[in-house]
Amino acid sequence: MPAATAPGRFITLEGGEGAGKSTQAIRLATALAAAGRPVLRTREPGGAPGAELLRGLLLDGAHTWSPPAETLLHFAARAEHVARTIRPALEAGMWVVCDRFADSTMVYQGWGQGADRAAIATLTGLVGLRPDLTLVLDVGVPTSLARLRHRGGAADRYESLGEGFFARVREGFLAVAAAEPARCAVIDAEADEDSVAAAILAAIAARLPA
Ligand SMILES: Nc1ncnc2c1ncn2[C@@H]1O[C@H](COP(=O)(O)OP(=O)(O)OP(=O)(O)O)[C@@H](O)[C@H]1O
Ligand SMILES: [Mg+2]
């Protein structure tokens, strides 16, 4: 069957700061392409022109949004990303690898900042696209902090929120994964990069048969 008519797959990478999502998104996209899959790698917030505009408003620090406003901006960006980038790619038969998606809003705004989790779940349903597989990269808070220190650069807003916030985020991702075990695979991301990459490919082989 030609790739253009094969079903696409939607894979998201989730987890706290410094868990290795961006590192593994690149490795996964490379591995899938090497296996002959048509791949689109993207990330949130952003991934479409309007969503990139909103990314700037969310991340540039020029304004402090209230938690509900921040949640709505993330979902507005996500709706653009899904409509203009992800759905067309899936319809064209691509494997979409997305660095953060709706679980990050549930966890950062809901678990981390105390926004209404039921409302976030409703907005997630409104977007109407559920990942085929979500890889939850799990690391302890000390590892997160050590990796961020090692990566260097300016701390972003969340990174500056402290260890209590990081602990709530970890707890939130594990709770999301436990609530949806058919969609989510928790990956031990304390391991070295090669081992994490291998665990991700094993999860895909087990859960997304070609
Ligand atoms: N398995 C690993 N072992 C050790 N270091 C790692 C591992 N994976 C990634 N790193 C390093 O940790 C740092 C954070 O990794 P990365 O940027 O991929 O994390 P992230 O989950 O995308 O973070 P953020 O949430 O801030 O976007 C980088 O310097 C990266 O090289
Ligand atoms: Mg990243």
What can you see in these coordinates?
The protein has helices at residues 21-34, 49-59, 67-91, 102-112, 117-127, 141-151, 163-179, 193-207; strands at 9-15, 39-43, 95-99, 133-138, 184-188. With 210 residues, the chain is an alpha/beta fold. It has a single domain (3-207), classed as Rossmann fold. It has a 5-stranded parallel β-sheet with strand order 2-3-1-4-5, with helices on both faces. Helix 3 runs parallel beside helix 5. The radius of gyration is 16 Å and the shape is globular. The site of adenosine-5'-triphosphate has 14 residues, from helix 1, helix 6 and helix 8.
Q: In the CATH hierarchy, what is the class?
A: Alpha Beta
Number of domains: 1
Strand neighbour order, sheet with most strands: 2-3-1-4-5
CATH topology: Rossmann fold
The portion of residues assigned to helices is 40-55%
* CATH superfamily annotation: P-loop containing nucleotide triphosphate hydrolases
Order of helices and strands: EHEHHEHHEHHEH
Tell me briefly what this model is:
The protein contains eight helices and five strands, in the order E-H-E-H-H-E-H-H-E-H-H-E-H. By secondary structure, it is α/β, with parallel strands linked by helices.
Chart the SSEs and their pairings.
Elements: E1 9-15, H1 21-34, E2 39-43, H2 49-59, H3 67-91, E3 95-99, H4 102-112, H5 117-127, E4 133-138, H6 141-151, H7 163-179, E5 184-188, H8 193-207
Parallel strand pairs: 1-3, 1-4, 2-3, 4-5
Helix pairs in contact: 1-8, 2-3, 3-5, 4-5, 4-7
The structure holds adenosine-5'-triphosphate and magnesium ion (MG).
